[in-house]
Amino acid sequence: MANEATVTANLKVVKGKLQYQSQPTSYQADISVANGPSPGAVTVTTGAGVDINLSQLATPALTRVANLDSTNFVSIGLKIGGTYYPFMELKPGESQVIRLSRTVLAAATVHAVANVASCVILFDSFDS
Fold first, then answer.
1. String of b and e for 90-106 (b: at least 16 CB within 10 Å)?
2. What phi and psi values does residue 105 have, to the nearest 5 degrees?
3. Which 8-state DSSP code applies to residue 22?
4. Among 23, 80, 84, 119, which residue's CB has the most CB atoms within a 10 Å radius?
5. Of the candidates 80, 76, 116, which has an alpha carbon nearest to the alpha carbon of residue 97?
6. 8 A C-beta contact, residue 90 and residue 44
7. Which of 1-15, 79-93, 105-119 is the least confident region?
8. Chain centre distance of CA 114
9. What pLDDT does residue 30 have?
10. Predicted pLDDT of residue 3
11. pLDDT exceeds 80 at position 1
12. For 49-64, what is the mean pLDDT?
């Protein structure tokens, strides 16, 4: 089969004289194996943070990340050779859909760090 997943996105910004609205876009994507969502709910700590365990998936790809906390933001990034490189931040209640790169995941670990107190995120990843 093909086109088992649909992703839709748009962005609207209104701030003073700045008014922007993208056209809603959507695309369909293939899901080759019925694995996921994995790992699901993850408790993210401050300081060292936590690695996101994607071992239940063969090739993690389409992923929805949601911050369930009402107070704290969470940074998400890659840990390579013990060094953490954050690439996104989710404020309280925010969520994003991303596609993980199979190339990067071969050499890095997805990692998350909470800013002030531990909080729970949903990390729902599916095989490509």
1. beeeeeeeeebeeeebe
2. -65, -20
3. P
4. 119
5. 76
6. no
7. 1-15
8. 14
9. 82
10. 82
11. no
12. 93
Give every CB contact of residue 47 below 8 A, 6+ residues apart in sequence: 113
Compute the distance between CA of residue 20 and CA of residue 24 in angstroms, rounded to an integer: 12
The torsion region of residue 92 among left (phi > 0), alpha (psi -120 to 50) and beta comes to beta
CA pair distance 41, 116, nearest whole angstrom: 19
> In 3-state terms, what secondary structure has residue 81?
coil
Do 62 and 31 form a contact (C-beta atoms < 8 A)? yes
Angstrom distance (rounded) from CA 69 to CA 14: 25
Task: Report how far residue 123's alpha carbon sits from residue 88's, in angstroms, rounded to the nearest whole number.
Answer: 13
Report the pLDDT value the prediction gives residue 74, as an integer from 0 to 100: 98
Q: Which residues have CB under 8 Å from 61's CB, separation 6+?
A: 29, 99, 100, 102, 125, 126, 127, 128
Query: What three-state secondary structure class fits 105?
Result: helix
How far, in Å, CA of 126 to CA of 112, rounded? 18
pLDDT above 80: residue 82: yes
114 SS3 class: strand
Whether the pLDDT of residue 100 is over 80: the answer is: yes
